[in-house]
Amino acid sequence: MRQRKLEIYSVEHHAATDIKKKEGRDGKKDNDLELKRNQQKEELKKELDLDDHKLSNKELETKYGTDIIRGLSSTRAAELLAQNGPNALTPPKQTPEIIKFLKQMVGGFSILLWVGAVLCWIAFGIQYVSNPSASLDSVYLGTVLAVVVILTGIFAYYQEAKSTNIMASFCKMIPQQAVVIRDSEKKVIPAEQLVVGDIVEIKGGDQIPADIRLLSAQGCKVDNSSLTGESEPQSRSSEFTHENPLETKNITFYSTTCLEASTSPVGTATGMVINTGDRTIIGRIASLASGVGNEKTPIAIEIEHFVHIVAGVAVSVGILFFIIAVCMKYHVLDAIIFLIAIIVANVPEGLLATVTVALSLTAKRMAKKNCLVKNLEAVETLGSTSIICSDKTGTLTQNRMTVAHLWFDNQIFVADTSEDNLNQGFDQSSGTWTSLSKIIALCNRAEFKPGQESVPIMKRVVVGDASETALLKFSEVILGDVMEIRKRNHKVVEIPFNSTNKFQLSIHQTEDPNDKRFLLVMKGAPERILEKCSTIMINGKEQPLDKSMAQAFHTAYMELGGLGERVLGFCHFYLPADEFPETYSFDSESMNFPTSNLCFVGLLSMIDPPRSTVPDAVTKCRSAGIKVIMVTGDHPITAKAIAKSVGIISANSETVEDIAKRCNIAVEQVNKRDAKAAVVTGMELKDMSPEQLDELLANYPEIVFARTSPQQKLIIVEGCQRQDAVVAVTGDGVNDSPALKKADIGVAMGITGSDAAKNAADMILLDDNFSSIVTGVEEGRLIFDNLKKTIAYTLTKNIAELCPFLIYIILGLPLPIGTITLLFIDLGTDIIPSIALAYEKAESDIMNRKPRHKKKDRLVNQQLAVYSYLHIGLMQALGAFLVYFTVYAQQGFRPTSLFHLRIAWDSDHLNDLEDNYGQEWTSYQRQYLEWTGYTAFFVGIMVQQIADLIIRKTRKNSIFKQGLFRNKVIWVGIASQIIVALLLSYGLGSITALNFTMLKAQYWFVAVPHAILIWVYDEMRKLFIRLYPGSWWDKNMYY
Amino acid sequence: MTKKEKKSFNQSLAEWKRFIYNPTSGEFLGRTAKSWGLILLFYLVFYGFLAALFTFTMWVMLQTLNDEVPKYRDQIPSPGLMVFPKPLSALEYTFSASDPSSYRGYIEDLRKFLKPYTLEEQKNLTVCPDGILSEQKGPVYVACQFPIFLLQACSGMSDPDFGYSQGSPCVLVKMNRIIGLKPEGTPRIECIPKDENVASISTYPNNGIIDLKYFPYYGKKLHVGYLQPLVAAQVIFSANSTKKEVTVECKIDGSPNLKNQDDRDKFLGRVAFKIIARA
């Protein structure tokens, strides 16, 4: 297995080494998976021996049993289609809906509640056997518990499904057509039906429908950026140029785009399909992505942690009191019922549904800001992100070449590279510029597609390669209608760019009717252009090109090249009218015109510029403590230049190489600690051990990875995850998809993103705007804080719900609150308020603090649990007991008489129980009083939960600073609490099964002083936390 | 995989040990002695304060109460009926006339219960006029005599076995005390056997009359020596019936404001009990 090579995934020739390493590591991790992978890899390996690029056309014909001229026969094609399946990527495996649903049914607390329900039924069963007239209470309770689980499960499932549906509609692919030769006829068929051996024709602008070995092509260029991250178009022809199938010119890949095929007249490139569907390179990368395990989201881990804590408390308290109850000679059945009640009291039944709602609210808010979240839990992940690994092309950059700098009159000018490009503020008064602009406009074969007059220039569709497009748009912006200029300066002859000449030339009649000279314009590789020149234009005047001018040219050329920009040189020459009269017949083949001693005019450099919002977003990420790492398939120089311009490498930081250059010493001599930034290429990366990578990631705050393969992207992400970082990966290409999947949160670009990337991602930026990530981080952090508040709010009342049972068991008071009544708090009065906390605004600038530490800053920590349970919870319990005792005392049972009254109180046959005033009560009358007690206790908790809700608005700041009325939803929540309680007491008070009674008006206010006390106490807590940060109080009281 | 788990188990064991006592930092259960001291002190003070506060609020609440009369009596608008003696479980009296030990418990309970009703005990009580409510203004409230002979055969005076030895047991039926309850009309307790062929019921005082003079009740504290009016029901099995088992239903009758029918409360103004007389 160690020998297996997957070089196909790699841009570099030898990148297979790192794949081996990765396999080795993974292998140790998981034997089963390894076995599975082995098989998968074995299968891959067979097909990876791609040698079609080396074969001649004849050999290809025999290999694939086809005919280059006539194509496959329809019958053979149909056979192959049946054999190999359609030419489409298998969509990632979906979890069946029923499994998703069942997961919701048993996840979280559901298991605990199911156990409770089953125990209830068992208890009833036993009771029924011994006494057929046993009360149905435990059956009711069991049923209610089951219904609660099912309802919350359905609810959570519905929420999930809703957010998934948005995605489903989003990811639909547009069916693609392909021109294929079959039975000697040209046919247009859906690309899905292509089979190996089909002869297809490709035009400029087409998506390549499968992996194709080119048979004939002229000037064909493909955009491989989605596969390799290279933003420059790659030329393709039918020649075999490289051993590596990815590098050779005669193979084009599925899902890449053909930019241009052949010169005029519009012709086509032909090729033979050599791989289809999942067997294409893209297909294999995609399957690599689906092979990467999906990590649990941080919030899922947190919720699990929280569920464990609460379930642990519930079960241990339950069992403890079960034992106590048995020791106190309670009937075992009764003890089981207590156990169930304690579990029900401890489990916040409504909380998980609330969390789901809170997350989906945030998801909605983020969708409005163009962040579409596929997986609800991923909403929070961005908030805890500590490292963002960003792809360059299309994510940080605009993914289109744009003119960035000009050099003329021995001076460098900066062009506007922002998205709209309209603000070209450099000095345009010089005569040199006039000449240069003319060359730019004329020596250019790119054209706007017609009918786009109303479209902004930068958005118009252009036929032509990326550089020419950039130049066309540049001159259109500055000069106006370029097509018109070209018409006025009629082109008489042209020589298109080719790789041997490295220049492009055209000769035009001038627009000046008095000037009968022809104008020769030329552009190309700067050094080639300079060779052909003997003069240079400075301030509109020709001067001889002396040594100093040549030196100046070289300096400028190096400088622009050093910025990672592609530099072009421009020159022109007015052909003398006497030698070249108007009737002169130019011939591009024999070149019967001068191509030397021309006049050099200027240089122009282009780059795929960063999006204008990116630098700001990077700065924000920095101040939020998030490390931004660039990972790109592009060249290191370009990568570094972009990194510098967007601030991934900040202005004053240097790499080891920079320091070496500045100090004029060897790279080895530089103290590595001095360098803040590092640029690492894929070649260097593949020689690194995991430990070295860890060291690199830990020591440099600013890192750029260049020339990386998809596999290496994965390794980098894993390296970051080893640092305990929560890693976000942004990308748009297919090559990013494994890393997107591996990341804690994969962020794909919505507009430029490939389907593979979108499939692998957890989040999609609809506007492709990197700065939307910042929004995501902010929302994610906010929801984390707010979930803390929600959970704290919900947990608090658990103590108030639990105490009644404990006291009932130990001290024998008439039961203060029933199990079903509890459910009305958990699922009735408390639901809307706990959701309302999700609307709370941030307390302080959450973007100025460090991302939370995955293992230290938990959602539910000890302080939160202790403060909720033992402080506020206990105060609530006391308040609720006060209401309870008040009701009993005012009806005739003084508190002291209630202790150990339980057996008499609960006895059905005792119908003359005497109270403190000598009155006698029947069993039902007592029962009714008990329900009144339930209602009173319920109202007591409800009133104090209002105070709890208000105090939970902030964790540190005073409520008055946060603003009592800023979050209106809180007040909706409070209103809902009161209305639900009123409805239960006065509306449904007559329904026996619900155990509510109409409570006297004054009892609603008994707990109010306690509620006020809770508020005051919490304000005090916050005050001390603010006054003495870092103190004992702060450490123990801040959650 | 198993290897890994083992390792992590050992690790977690070590972690637990370190959690229980960490020798380097001197932490016990995650806190140093000083920290434990502080936290315990804090909770002592905090819980002390809460306890004091709760005691205070309870005290305030108790101040709202009246010693003589409960603040509200709305939950017991109408009295329940109950029988005496109280059988051990359910309302089933099982006895055998020929076996005194089977009913000794009942008789003793009845004697004890009727003790306050003996003539010596009541001699300080007032003789009230029959048929009218004895409403009083206080401050001293007097209780009316309930002469035990009203219970005739069930008074225990003529038959110390309350009929049990003859196979015709006496069961006392009483109406729950409710402060301030003023029955209207002429309340009486009517007892009917489920199966009239098996047994007949005699009620004492005659007709099961409950005299209005015992109402209203003014509460345990004010109404010292108050005697609850009683009605005795004697079950007389028919001589020709072989079955000696009967269910008796008693209910309040003759008073419009005393309910004797409630779907949920089976003891509101009525009571049902079963007599099983074994041979």
Automatic annotation (TrEMBL), chain A:
Chief location of this protein within or outside the cell: membrane
Keyword flag RNA-binding: no
Record Pfam families: Cation_ATPase, Cation_ATPase_C, Cation_ATPase_N, E1-E2_ATPase, Hydrolase_3
Region (Disordered), start-end ranges: 18-40
PROSITE patterns: ATPASE_E1_E2
Domain Cation-transporting P-type ATPase N-terminal: 51-125
Cellular-component GO terms for this entry: cation-transporting ATPase complex; plasma membrane protein complex
Transmembrane regions listed in the UniProt entry: 106-126, 138-158, 306-326, 332-359, 864-887, 970-989, 1001-1017
UniProt keyword annotation of Ion transport present: yes
Keywords, comma-separated and alphabetical: ATP-binding, Hydrogen ion transport, Ion transport, Magnesium, Membrane, Metal-binding, Nucleotide-binding, Phosphoprotein, Potassium, Potassium transport, Translocase, Transmembrane, Transmembrane helix, Transport
GO molecular function, one term: ATP hydrolysis activity
Any single biological process term in GO: intracellular potassium ion homeostasis
Domain of life according to the entry: Eukaryota
Compartments, as annotated in UniProt: Cell membrane; Membrane
Membrane-protein topology: Multi-pass membrane protein
Family named by the database record: Belongs to the cation transport ATPase (P-type) (TC 3.A.3) family. Type IIC subfamily.
Protein name, as recorded: Sodium/potassium-transporting ATPase subunit alpha
Designated gene of the protein: ATP12A
